[in-house]
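Hi F.,

I've been meaning to write this up properly since the lab meeting, where we talked about keeping a consistent format for the predictions we share between groups. The idea is simple: the sequence comes first, exactly as it goes in, then the structure tokens exactly as they come out, then a line or two of notes. No screenshots and no reformatting. I'm using this chain as the first example so we have something concrete to point to.
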Amino acid sequence: MALTICPDCEGKVSQSAKACPHCGCPMFAMTVEQTGKDWKIVMIVAGVMMGVGFVALPILRLLGVSGNEWPWILSVAVLVLGFRLSYFAPIGSLWPPG
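Output, unedited:
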């Protein structure tokens, strides 16, 4: 059985113990929420979308594509959606799971 350190008295405590035998401090298992991973993926997707939008706009301007053609509109839409995702993903990561 693995041992861990009590945060209050720094005594050695079994990981299966519900409380420290030395000081009685309750021991809680530290678990990582699965939802945090999902929101990190959303942030990565948002970053990629913003990158594509930022790169596409100058390239389209150099190619002479006007502002009312579909590639221009699509790149602006991708850029705006990337900004929206990057804004709402941190808020969503704070939302309680379930």
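Notes:
Residues 34-63 form the longest helix (30 residues).
Strands lie at 3-5, 12-14.

If this format works for you, I'll send the rest the same way.

G.
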